[in-house]
Amino acid sequence: MVMHPKPPFPSQQQQMPGRTATMQPVPDHGEESYRGSGKLSGKKVIITGGDSGIGRAVAIAFAREGADILISYLDEEEDAQETRRWIEEAGRKAILVPGDIQDPGHCRTIIEKAVAELGGIDVLVNNAAHQATFHDISDISDLEWEKTFKVNIHAMFFLTKAAVAHMKPGSSIINTASINSDNPNPTLLAYATTKGAIQNFTAGLAQLLAEKGIRANAVAPGPIWTPLIPSTMPVESVENFGKQVPMKRPGQPAELATAYVMLADPLSSYVSGATIAVTGGKPLL
What we know:
By secondary structure, this protein is of the alpha/beta class.
């Protein structure tokens, strides 16, 4: 049995959006543990927020399952290059596309690049997210509220709308929701609200796309040890991060990868409109 790190963690804080290398402990993305078996052989995949955290773990797993991957990220060049290295080490093609998905035009550019450089789109993983902690609603600025919605839900719509036009029957859309979709953390009010919207968007989308043969599902992570944590939460919250769930620890990004692989796998052809909870034992309501 693998022993995963448990809190308390060293005191640490970073500037948004955070960097992997300076985290203590450094997250596990499955670099040494994930073994592929060809489940996604020849698939062409887009992963937003694929430079680090959950996105990097999914990229490593998908590459080892045989997929070529476009990684969308904001500006975390060092992390993105590291993810590219793991994809290419698996013998697969890696395309890096930096830029802000708040811009609808950039979302369409991501889709266009995938079609041009990968030759199509079989799987879209909408994973990028923005969050920030506030203890009083009066501290949430109009711009902060708008940014959270633009990154977390508006971009998902723009990307999905553009991608569907290029997707064939059997394609898959996987959206990263959250335990906050059902159990909102009051100090993450804007973030939690968008995650609830993502779950509803996914459920409606699955029904809308069923006749096209395109599946849509969501993964709802619990507390996961990624750069988002030390860059968006107070020091004391970081030190005790994950302590509140039954397993008494945060999940590592590697522990989510198999959920995304299952949802992308063509053999999961009857799975659509589902939300897969990966929460360390805490049930969704």
